[in-house]
């Protein structure tokens, strides 16, 4: 069941990648424009509230699609070896307290929570600034469970939020992104 919340109107990003022949980490429900593997001006799995299972090779919804709940990017398939970049557009200028990302950490399968997240805000969508310092995730080499990672945004005022995620392994998998914000 899709439940778009948080005032998010659209998000734009590069489409997820294929992992072998069995798992496609695509945003299957994205309803916006898809051009040359770039998604823009739509909503999809990142805002549906469905958290993925740690074992992405499962098909808990019995859809015939393993890892369906996850959108994922492979480090060596990026044209630009930089971060995964996702731009969220909101219904109005908002005051942001935090963003929470549900991330996979199945490190024995080359999947880790991002190493660093950089968060930028913009009022008009053209010029972005950074309100808070980069968030550095402390690598967990013991527990492989997927988990929520909350990043405080220090009451950032913006209508657009750009989230840049830097790799700590071969794969980054995200299933849900939620913002804590209020109208400004």
Secondary structure layout plus pairing:
Layout: E1 8-14, E2 18-19, E3 23-24, E4 33-35, E5 38-42, E6 71-74, E7 84-103, E8 116-122, E9 135-136, E10 147-166, E11 171-183
Antiparallel strand pairs: 1-5, 1-7, 2-3, 4-5, 6-11, 7-10, 7-11, 8-9, 8-10
Detailed description of the structure:
Helix content is 0%, strand content 46%. The protein is built from no helices and 11 strands. The protein is mainly beta and 184 residues long. It has one domain (8-183): Jelly Rolls. The strands form 2 sheets. Strands 1, 4, 5, 6, 7, 8, 9, 10 and 11 form a 9-stranded antiparallel beta sheet that branches. Strands 2-3 form a two-stranded antiparallel sheet. Pfam families: DDR1-2_DS-like. It is found in: Membrane. Residues 7-181 form the Discoidin domain. Keywords: Disulfide bond, Glycoprotein, Membrane, Signal, Transmembrane, Transmembrane helix. InterPro entries: DDR1-2_DS-like.
CATH topology heading: Jelly Rolls
CATH C-level name: Mainly Beta
Q: Would you list the SSEs in sequence order as H and E?
A: EEEEEEEEEEE
DSSP helix fraction: under 10%
The overall average pLDDT, rounded, is 93
Query: Beta-sheet strand percentage?
Result: over 45%
User: What is the number of strand segments?
Assistant: 11
Number of domains: 1
Number of distinct helices? 0
CATH A-level architecture? Sandwich
Described by strand count, sense and barrel closure, the largest sheet is:
9 strands, antiparallel
| Parts with pLDDT < 50 across at least 5 consecutive residues | none
Kindly report the oligomeric state of this protein.
single chain
Note the overall shape. Answer: globular
What is the radius of gyration?
A: 15 Å
N→C terminal distance: 29 Å
Strand-pairing-aware structural class: mainly beta
